[in-house]
Inverse folding.
C-alpha cells in the first residue's frame, strides 16, 4: 500500500515539473496583477503575435523573494505589479534589468517609468477623494492635507495603512512636505476618523454612501466598479490638490527580470502593452487610465472628469515606503 | 514483562518518517532562529515600540477567548448529543460538524457584510427605528466569536469521540455502583476525556495563532498580521522570521502546558463501547434550551454563511461559466496527496514510537507537530525559499560537473508543494491517529506478541483494523485544512496548478468578495463532502 502511494506521489511530481521543455516560444510573467485582469490581455497578445504567455500570480513580496531565491535559474522574464513602490523595491533588490526601448520611452511619460528602463508603468490609477454628495458640497473639498482639519472631525473614513496604496500616498506626501509635516497630517486624519479603518476601499465607499462618514480616500477603479453595479450609488469622486501639485497617481507596471531567459520576446510583450489597442484593453479592463497619452480612457472613466496629476516620479513611492509605514505606525494610523 | 526484552526491534523503515518529518520541520525552525544573526535592529525596534504591546495583548486575548469559547461549544454540544436524550440528536450529531467546511474568513466576511453600518441589518434598523447604536463586530470580540464558530468542530469531534467510547461505559459502570451520572461525569468521564479535549484545544489554539484572513478582516492586530506586515509591507523576511519566534514560543508554551497536564496518565479504552443508554435525561425546558442553542450554533456557523455564498454565486453566475473543473481537480489532487502522505507517515511514526523506548524518537514525533504552529507565509519564507536556494546549489554543482546548464529540479514541482503542505498540516492528521492509538491497550500488543506474532502481523491484524477509522478521520481533517490553505499554496504551486483557494485569493485580494463566492462555495462543498465522509466514519463503528 505504501509503495503504491509512493509511486503515485512520484508519478504526479514527475508529470508536474515546472521546467518547460521549450523556453523559446513563450514569455513567463510573474504577476501581482490578478489573473482575471491579465488573462484576456495575454490571450490577445498571443493571438496577435503567436507568443504564448505563462504566468504565475501571487503577492508582490512573495514574487520578489521567489525571484531572488531563484536567481539566474529563474524562469521569469517579466515582473508585473500593481504599485510603483513594489517595482522600485524590485529594482533595489537587483532582480530587474534595463529593458531599453525607444518605443517605450517615447510613449510612456517620464514620471511613470524608471529613467534607465528598469520598469515602465502601463496603466494609471488615481487615489482620490470620494464623498457623499448629499452631505458635502464640492466647494468644501480642497486637498488631501485639508482632510486633517477640524471641519472634518468624525467625517472621514480610511482604508487600513496595511495596504500598499495608502503607503504610497503617504510616501508621496513625505516627498512633498517632509516627514514632520506629513506626520501631523496623518495624525489629523486619524483624529477625524468616523469609524475604525476598513480593510478595503469598497468598505470605505459603502460607508460614505450609507452615511457613516462623509469623505474617504480610494482608488478610482473601486469606485468605478461599484458604480457599475449600483447605478444610484450615493457617492462621487473629487479631484483634490488641483491648485497645488495635483492628484496622487500610481501605476500598474512591469519590468524585465535580471536573468530573463527570453529577453527579446519579453521586450516585444512590454512594447505591445504600450500600443494603443493593448493600452485600451489593459486600462479599460479595470477602469484605469492608459499611460500612453495618445489613448483616451473609457467613456465611464472619462465621465469622472479630467484632472491634473502629480508629476513626481512614482518611484518615490517605493523609496519612501518604509518611512511611510513607520510614520503611519507612529501616528496611530492602523 | 520478559516478552519485551526478547522482542525484535521494529524495522528501521518505520522510524524513517519520524526523522524525515522532524528534519523537514527543522528547516523553517532553523531559518527562524538563524534570522536573529542578521537582525534589522531599527525595524524590529520599530515593531517593539509601536505595536508590540497591543499585538501581544490581542494575540493572547484572542487565543484564550477562541480556545475557551470553542471548548464550551464543542464539548457542550458533544455532551448534549452523546449523553442526553436530546431531541433530534441524530441530526445534530452530524450537523455540528458542518461548520468545518467553511473557511473562517468566509464566515467572517459574511457577517461583516451583514452587520456593518452600511450593511442590510443596520440600514434597516436606521430606516425603521431611531435605534442606530449597534456596536460593530469588526473588533476583538467579534473576531473571537466568529473564529470560535469556525473552529469549535475540532473540539466537538474529539470530545464526541471520547464521550462515545468511554463516557457512557464510565457512567454505566458508575451507576452500577450507585454513583450518580453527574458525579461520574465530573469525576470520571471528563478527566478521562481530557487528552481529546485538550488535543482539540491545541489544534484550535494553533489555528488561531496562524490565522491571517479572519483577523485582518476584523482589523485585529496579532503576531501573524505583524509578520505579514514585516514581509509584505517592509519587505523584510528576516524581521518576519524573527517575529515568528514569538509564535513558536507561545505554541511551545501551550504544548508544554498540555503535556505536563496529561503526564503519566493512562487513557486506554475500557472494553468495547457498546453502551447505548442515555444517562442524562433532560426536562422539557432543558430540551427546548438545548435544541435552540445547538440550532443557533448550526445556523450561525454553517447555514447562514453558506446561504449567503449561494446567493452571491447566483448573483455572479457568469463566473460559473468559467471552467473551474481543472481547478477543482487540482485542489482535490493536492488535498489527497497531502492527506495520504500525512496518514502514511503518521501511521509509521505512531508504530515506531509505540514499539520503541527511544526518547529521541519521541522527541522527533513531538517536534514534527510544530509545523502546524507556523502560518503558511512563514513556511513560504522558512521552507520554500531555502529549498529553492538548495535547488539552485544542486543545479550549480551539476552544471559545473557536466558543463551544461541544468534547470531547477524540485522548484515548481508538485512534490515540493505537497512537502511544504505536509509540514504545515502533519500535526492535525497525526493527532487523530495518535489519539486512536492511545486507545489501543498495550496489553493487546503483549498478548499478540506472546502468542507468537511478530510486529508486522501485530500491526496488520490488530492495530490496522482498530486504527483504520482514526486514519480516515486524520486524512479527512488534513484534506479539509489543505484545501483551505492560501499563502503557501500560492507560492509553491507549479504553473497552471491553480486551486480553489488561489482563485479565492485572486478576487479577495482586490476586495471583490462577492465574485469570490463561486470558488468559495466550491471549496465549501468539497469540505462538506469530506465532512459527510467523516460523519459516515462515525456511523460505521456504531
Amino acid at each position: 500500500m505504501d509503495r503504491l502511494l509512493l509511486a503515485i506521489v512520484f508519478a504526479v511530481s514527475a508529470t508536474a515539473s515546472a521546467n518547460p521543455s521549450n523556453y523559446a516560444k513563450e514569455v513567463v510573467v510573474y504577476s501581482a496583477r490578478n489573473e482575471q485582469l491579465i488573462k484576456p490581455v495575454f490571450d490577445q497578445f498571443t493571438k496577435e503575435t503567436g507568443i504564448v504567455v505563462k504566468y504565475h500570480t501571487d503577492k508582490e513580496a512573495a514574487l520578489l523573494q521567489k525571484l531572488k531565491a531563484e536567481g539566474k535559474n529563474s524562469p521569469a522574464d517579466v515582473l508585473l505589479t500593481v504599485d510603483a513602490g513594489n517595482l522600485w523595491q524590485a529594482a533595489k533588490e537587483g532582480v530587474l534589468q534595463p529593458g531599453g526601448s525607444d518605443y517605450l520611452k517615447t510613449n510612456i511619460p517620464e514620471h511613470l517609468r524608471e529613467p534607465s528602463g528598469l520598469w515602465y508603468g502601463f496603466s494609471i490609477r488615481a487615489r482620490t477623494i470620494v464623498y457623499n454628495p448629499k452631505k458635502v458640497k464640492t466647494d468644501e473639498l480642497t486637498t488631501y492635507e485639508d482632510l486633517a482639519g477640524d471641519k472634518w472631525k468624525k467625517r472621514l473614513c480610511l482604508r487600513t495603512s496595511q495596504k500598499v496604496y495608502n503607503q504610497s500616498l503617504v510616501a508621496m506626501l513625505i516627498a512633498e512636505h517632509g516627514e514632520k509635516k506629513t506626520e501631523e497630517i496623518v495624525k489629523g486624519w486619524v483624529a477625524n476618523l468616523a469609524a475604525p479603518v476598513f480593510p478595503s476601499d469598497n468598505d470605505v465607499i459603502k460607508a460614505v454612501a450609507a452615511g457613516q462618514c462623509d469623505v474617504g480616500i480610494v482608488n478610482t477603479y473601486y469606485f468605478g466598479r461599484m458604480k457599475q453595479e449600483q447605478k444610484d450609488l450615493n457617492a462621487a469622486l473629487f479631484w483634490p490638490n488641483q491648485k497645488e501639485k495635483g492628484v496622487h497617481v500610481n501605476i500598474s507596471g512591469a519590468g524585465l527580470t535580471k536573468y530573463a531567459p527570453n529577453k527579446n520576446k519579453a521586450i516585444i510583450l512590454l512594447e505591445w502593452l504600450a500600443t494603443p489597442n493593448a493600452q485600451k484593453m489593459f486600462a479599460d479592463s479595470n477602469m484605469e487610465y492608459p499611460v500612453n497619452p495618445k489613448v483616451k480612457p473609457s467613456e465611464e472613466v472619462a465621465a469622472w472628469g479630467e484632472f491634473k496629476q502629480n508629476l513626481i516620479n512614482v518611484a518615490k513611492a517605493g523609496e519612501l515606503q518604509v518611512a511611510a509605514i513607520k510614520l503611519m505606525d507612529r501616528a496611530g494610523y492602523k | 514483562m520478559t516478552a519485551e526484552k526478547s522482542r525484535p526491534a521494529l524495522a528501521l523503515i518505520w522510524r524513517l518518517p519520524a526523522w524525515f518529518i522532524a528534519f523537514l520541520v527543522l528547516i523553517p525552525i532553523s531559518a527562524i532562529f538563524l534570522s536573529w544573526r542578521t537582525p534589522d535592529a531599527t525595524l524590529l525596534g520599530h515593531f517593539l515600540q509601536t505595536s508590540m504591546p497591543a499585538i501581544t495583548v490581542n494575540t493572547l486575548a484572542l487565543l484564550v477567548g477562541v480556545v475557551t469559547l470553542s471548548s464550551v461549544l464543542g464539548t457542550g454540544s458533544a455532551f448534549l448529543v452523546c449523553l442526553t436524550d436530546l431531541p433530534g440528536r441524530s441530526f445534530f450529531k452530524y450537523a455540528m460538524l458542518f461548520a468545518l467546511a467553511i473557511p473562517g474568513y468566509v464566515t467572517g466576511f459574511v457577517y461583516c457584510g451583514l452587520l456593518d453600518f452600511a450593511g442590510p441589518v443596520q440600514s434597516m434598523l436606521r430606516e425603521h427605528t431611531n435605534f442606530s447604536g449597534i456596536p460593530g463586530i469588526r473588533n476583538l470580540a467579534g473576531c473571537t466569536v466568529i473564529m470560535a464558530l469556525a473552529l469549535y468542530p475540532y473540539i466537538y469531534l474529539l470530545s464526541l469521540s471520547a464521550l462515545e467510547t468511554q463516557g457512557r461505559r464510565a457512567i454505566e459502570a458508575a451507576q452500577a455502583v450507585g454513583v450518580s451520572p453527574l458525579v461520574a461525569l465530573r469525576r470520571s468521564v471528563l478527566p478521562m476525556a481530557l487528552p481529546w479535549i485538550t488535543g482539540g484545544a491545541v489544534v484550535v489554539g494553533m489555528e488561531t495563532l496562524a490565522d491571517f484572513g479572519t483577523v485582518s478582516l476584523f482589523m485585529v492586530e496579532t503576531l501573524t498580521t505583524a509578520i505579514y506586515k514585516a514581509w509584505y509591507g517592509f519587505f523584510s523576511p528576516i524581521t518576519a522570521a524573527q517575529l515568528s519566534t514569538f509564535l513558536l514560543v507561545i505554541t511551545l508554551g501551550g504544548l508544554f502546558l498540555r503535556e505536563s497536564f496529561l503526564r503519566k496518565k493512562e487513557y486506554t479504552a475500557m472494553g468495547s463501547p457498546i453502551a447505548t443508554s442515555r444517562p442524562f435525561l433532560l426536562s422539557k425546558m432543558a430540551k427546548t434550551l438545548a435544541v435552540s442553542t445547538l440550532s443557533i450554533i448550526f445556523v450561525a456557523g454553517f447555514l447562514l454563511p453558506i446561504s449567503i455564498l449561494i446567493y452571491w454565486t447566483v448573483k455572479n453566475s457568469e463566473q460559473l461559466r468559467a471552467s473551474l473543473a481543472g481547478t477543482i481537480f487540482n485542489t482535490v489532487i493536492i488535498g489527497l496527496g497531502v492527506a495520504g502522505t500525512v496518514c502514511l507517515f503518521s501511521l509509521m511514526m505512531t508504530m515506531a514510537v509505540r514499539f520503541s523506548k527511544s526518547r529521541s524518537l519521541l522527541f522527533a514525533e513531538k517536534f514534527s507537530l510544530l509545523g502546524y504552529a507556523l502560518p503558511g507565509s512563514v513556511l513560504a519564507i522558512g521552507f520554500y525559499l531555502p529549498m529553492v536556494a538548495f535547488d539552485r546549489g544542486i543545479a550549480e554543482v551539476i552544471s559545473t560537473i557536466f558543463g551544461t546548464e541544468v534547470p531547477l529540479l524540485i522548484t515548481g514541482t508538485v512534490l515540493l508543494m505537497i512537502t511544504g503542505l505536509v509540514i504545515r498540516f502533519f500535526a492535525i492528521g497525526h493527532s487523530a491517529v495518535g489519539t486512536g492509538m492511545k486507545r489501543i491497550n498495550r496489553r493487546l500488543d503483549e498478548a499478540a506478541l506472546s502468542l507468537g506474532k511478530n510486529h508486522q502481523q501485530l500491526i496488520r491484524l490488530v492495530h490496522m483494523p482498530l486504527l483504520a477509522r482514526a486514519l480516515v478521520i486524520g486524512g479527512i481533517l488534513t484534506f479539509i485544512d489543505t484545501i483551505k490553505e492560501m499563502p503557501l499554496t500560492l507560492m509553491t504551486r507549479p504553473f497552471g496548478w491553480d486551486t480553489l483557494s488561489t482563485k479565492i485569493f485572486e478576487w479577495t485580494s482586490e476586495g471583490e468578495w462577492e465574485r469570490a463566492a463561486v470558488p468559495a462555495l466550491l471549496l465549501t462543498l468539497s469540505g462538506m463532502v469530506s465532512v459527510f465522509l467523516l460523519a459516515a466514519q462515525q456511523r460505521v463503528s456504531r
